[in-house]
Specification:
Blueprint lengths: L3 E5 L10 E6 L18 E4 L5 E5 L4 E3 L16 E4 L3 E10 L5 E10 L2 E10 L13 H20 L5 H34 L1
Length: 196
């Protein structure tokens, strides 16, 4: 199994914040359960110098995304999150629920050939709008363009909604321009890195 980068924050305080490559370690030891009731699991960590740690609990490491940020940070529009009984969905936004122990999580759902935003009322103990896998800024922007195009197609079906049509067309134009600028900047950075 391939390893994945993690930041350590376990019981060995002098290693806190250091980056390791982690692999899942199969062992018969009982490592208990984390706060969600999942089996803690066990990992082996190795750093660049070859130093290794065995039997490290899942709660002692934080996976790192390719951008260097924690993998499981608060989700942004277009990130993937996990919702109980639904699995992985594309996150839209979140707001407070009717009680202090609930929140509304809004996510993108496909019905037929159209995307829309659906909502799920969840307990703060059951779900959080936390990114479950890495989504590049380019992928999120592409997703936003796709949603704007879908909304644009929906408004085209109703000619009397001319103002909404114009707003969505402007949004698509802005997002497309931003995507082109990001692609140009990435290409330029690659060329400069190759010359240096």
């Amino acid at each position: 199994m391939a390893g994945f980068p993690v930041r350590y924050h376990g019981s060995i305080t002098e290693l806190h914040g250091l980056t390791f490559t982690a692999t899942v370690h199969d062992c018969d030891d009982d490592h208990g359960q984390d706060i969600t009731g999942r089996d803690e699991g066990c990992h082996t960590l190795v750093d660049e110098s070859g130093r290794s740690l065995a039997h490290v609990r899942r709660s002692s490491i934080t996976p790192i995304a390719p951008d260097g940020d924690d993998l499981h940070h608060v989700a942004r529009d277009g990130d993937w999150i996990h919702l109980p009984s639904l699995g992985e969905v594309r996150f839209a936004h979140q707001e407070s629920g009717p009680t202090c122990r609930t929140w509304w999580i809004y996510y993108y759902a496909c019905s037929g050939r159209r995307w829309s935003i659906s909502a799920r009322l969840v307990s703060i103990y059951d779900a959080a709008a936390i990114r479950t896998r890495y989504t590049t800024p380019q992928e999120r922007l592409t997703w936003q363009v796709r949603m704007a195009l879908d909304e644009l197609a929906e408004t085209c079906a109703h000619p009397h909604l001319h103002q909404v049509f114009e707003e969505q067309a402007d949004l698509v134009e802005r997002l497309t321009r931003q995507q082109e600028l990001n692609a140009d900047a990435a290409e330029l950075a690659g060329v400069e890195a190759g010359q240096g």
